[in-house]
Design a protein that fits this description.
Number of strands: 7
Structural class: alpha+beta
Shape: globular
Helix content: 25-40%
Distance between the termini: 33 Å
Strand order of the largest sheet: 4-5-6-7
Radius of gyration: 16 Å
Largest sheet: 4 strands, antiparallel
Strand content: 25-35%
Order of helices and strands: EEEHHEEEEHHHHH
Length: 180
């Protein structure tokens, strides 16, 4: 089992740093708000998991792009079975027209990948708040719907233990995140 971590922090207005760690190998992404990194990532993952075309077609793939000042990061996520997925990211410097350099290529358990992202974003949004997120990020709201879809998956699979604040499967509990 591969140990995975995901970290996300806002910097100066319109900037953020995301970090994905697999088995001690860290990939850091300095992001700008010319893209919507959390929205794009969570949307792609949620679509993969709510439309399991791998059952019929053999695989299920989604892609999204993150941008920094100078580089772009092309992410490709491929679900091969109900349990495993491949996560791949390449870094390209569009200004120089370079070929993409692979910075992440790992096969992992779906719920481990989703779990590390949801755990980080749960702490993150509860600490910063939805309004502060939008004010600091400046171009997009926190992707709450996709976040809750993924969190619900973890709850249903017994991978997320609802806390006292009301992590559960109903809308009244979901609104507790607004009040925290």
């Amino acid at each position: 089992m591969k140990k995975q971590e995901f970290h996300f922090a806002l910097g100066e207005p319109g900037t953020a740093v995301a970090t994905y760690v697999v088995d001690g190998i860290e990939s850091e992404f300095e992001l700008t708000n010319v893209c919507n990194p959390l929205g794009d990532m969570l949307c792609a993952i949620a679509q993969l998991l709510t439309n399991p075309s791998q059952i019929w077609e053999g695989s299920n793939t989604a892609a999204f792009t993150w941008y920094s000042e100078d580089d772009s990061y092309e992410w490709t996520i491929n679900v091969q079975s109900d349990e495993e997925m491949t996560v791949r990211a390449t870094q390209t410097n569009d200004f120089f027209g370079d070929e993409g350099v692979e910075i992440i290529n790992t096969k992992c358990k779906i719920d481990d990948f989703v779990g590390c992202i949801v755990a980080e974003l749960d702490k993150f949004i509860k600490s910063i708040g939805l309004l502060n997120y939008q004010q600091q990020w400046q171009t997009a709201e926190f992707p709450l719907t996709y976040f809750l879809i993924l969190k619900r998956r973890l709850i249903e699979k017994g991978r997320w233990t609802p806390d006292v604040m009301g992590d559960s499967l109903n809308i009244s509990a979901e609104t507790q995140i607004l009040m925290a």
